[in-house]
Specification:
The chain has about 180 residues and is mainly alpha-helical. The protein has 10 helices and no strands. It folds into 2 domains: about 100 residues, Alpha Horseshoe (Serine Threonine Protein Phosphatase 5, Tetratricopeptide repeat); about 70 residues, Tetratricopeptide repeat domain (Serine Threonine Protein Phosphatase 5, Tetratricopeptide repeat, Alpha Horseshoe).
Length: about 180
């Protein structure tokens, strides 16, 4: 019988090559070998996401979390999936867990800001984006989205400053 670590490595190799269907088969084989392997469930979820099989992906992330409640990557993946489904309130709860596990995770602060923005909670979104840029000073998208949220609050001049910072970091960003 194959061992789980070897299967996870093989599945990851297929995944990196963009061979998602092959990777999925391997991750599912790993789950058959060890149904309690949280990483196999998470990797299955990421692969299903790439295959646009979103509901099953979410279920996989939830199973990974059930098996390993402090699994940062699975929590983050679940939060991103919930955002994809426009289930922003639920996504926020998952981002809170991610940030409880890793307070300096700039991408989680950024994604939390996006969810808050979608809920029209602009002041909170700005605070979240600001946490992201405090951790990662060159986070152009976060600077940009601070500007977008400031515009929604009618703070045009402040917004303009943030857009300029974002463009200095990444000239590709357009306004």
């Amino acid at each position: 019988m194959p061992n789980v670590e070897d299967l996870l490595t093989k599945g990851s190799e297929f995944y990196k090559l963009g061979k998602y269907k092959e990777a999925l088969k391997i991750f599912e084989e790993a789950i058959k070998v060890d149904p309690n392997c949280a990483r196999a469930w998470n990797d299955r979820g990421v692969t299903l996401y790439k295959l646009k099989i979103y509901r099953e992906a979410l279920t996989s992330f939830e199973e990974a979390i059930r098996l390993k409640p402090d699994f940062l990557e699975a929590w983050n993946n679940k939060a991103v999936m919930l955002s994809e489904f426009k289930r922003y309130e639920e996504a926020l709860k998952s981002f809170e867990k991610v940030l409880e596990l890793k307070p300096d995770y700039a991408e989680a602060w950024y994604n939390r800001g996006i969810a808050l923005y979608k809920l029209k909670r602009y002041e909170e979104a700005i605070k979240s984006f600001e946490k992201a840029v405090k951790i990662k000073k060159d986070y152009a998208e976060a600077w940009y989205n601070i500007g977008v949220a400031l515009e929604k609050l009618g703070k045009k001049e402040e917004a303009k400053e943030k857009f300029e910072i974002a463009r200095r970091i990444n000239p590709e960003l357009k306004r």
